[in-house]
Design brief:
This protein is an all-alpha fold. It has helices at about 5-20, 30-40, 50-60, 65-85, 105, 110-125, 135-150, 155-165, 170-195, 200-225, 230-235, 240, 250, 255-270, 280-290; strands spanning about 95, 100.
Length: about 300
């Protein structure tokens, strides 16, 4: 699959997610100011990479995207909540997100905290509402909650805060990002595989792929923070250095960081060996795209 075809498919799958996200809070049962804050960040754009990975892996193992869509949207809700909270003054203290004022700047700090809380909790309403075999749903929810919680994303944020202003070793950096960024990307792949009916031998392949592209994604993100275009990124370039963050370029340099990202993508491609479904070509193209992305 060439890059243009991959981007078209990424856009098409992302549009499914986008359409469903617009309806989540439409029942009128949540306070309007809270909905405004949640939707401000939830509908602020982005490639919807994590939910798309969930849908693609479900289809790769023979499942139907439509039956997994709400779970994919749950992943996006968790990702968005993490961005809202990461931007808070007590965390990364960022004023911009995707080229717009951060949630706490657009509304206020208390509303931003509650919007994040609301999105996180709503995710499990969505994730548990699928019409699939209960044992699949339970296993997928367990995997998602583990990846999002103290053993995964939340724990990674704590490690990140602890390393701010310090010189991290490569093992420390890899552990922090495997939790903070990688865990949610990995679980997007694994839960899609579980919900799509993937076998016990296919689920580890989803995990390997997700871990590998999660690392490549973070390394590329760190590189872009040094040499990227601020308009394309939608946030200030150099913010990691300004905040004293530990990054791969700071530790390895730009060239070796690129080598690490390439090695990680190669690992992701190896995990897809043996899959003949057309979705495998899409997932291979996504892995390669991560190396060349500009935002």
């Amino acid at each position: 699959m060439n890059p243009q075809e991959m981007k078209a498919e990424l856009k098409a799958l992302g549009a499914l997610v986008e359409a469903r996200l617009t309806t989540i809070f439409g029942d009128g049962r949540s306070p309007a100011p809270l909905v405004a804050s949640m939707e401000y960040s939830l509908m602020a754009g982005g490639k919807r990479l994590r939910p798309v990975l969930c849908l693609a892996w479900a289809e790769l193992v023979g499942g139907e995207a439509a039956k997994v869509l709400d779970f994919a949207c749950a992943i996006e809700c968790i990702h968005t909540y993490s961005l809202i909270h990461d931007d808070l003054p007590a965390m990364d203290d960022d004023d911009l997100r995707r080229g717009k004022p951060s949630n706490h700047k657009q509304f206020d700090e208390a509303t931003a905290i509650l919007a994040g809380d609301g999105l996180l909790t709503e995710a499990f309403t969505l994730a548990s509402s699928l019409e699939l075999r209960p044992e699949r749903i339970l296993k997928a929810v367990f995997h998602l909650s583990t990846a999002a919680g103290p053993r995964g994303m939340v724990g990674g944020q704590v490690l990140d805060m602890g390393l701010t202003g310090k010189s991290a070793s490569l093992p420390q950096l890899r552990e922090m990002h495997a939790k903070k960024t990688g865990a949610l990307i990995e679980t997007s792949c694994v839960t899609g595989c579980i919900l799509g009916g993937g076998s016990d031998s296919e689920q580890p392949k989803a995990s390997e792929y997700g871990q590998a592209i999660g690392l490549a994604f973070q390394v590329t993100d760190d590189i872009l923070d040094v040499i990227g275009d601020e308009a394309a990124l939608g946030k200030p370039v150099g913010s990691d250095q300004a905040q004293g963050k530990s990054t791969y370029p700071a530790l390895l340099g730009i060239d070796q960081s690129r080598v690490l990202a390439r090695q990680s993508v190669d690992q992701a491609l190896a995990a897809l060996a043996g899959f003949s479904h057309p979705r495998a070509d899409f997932l291979r193209a996504v892995a390669l795209y991560i190396l060349d992305r500009t935002h």
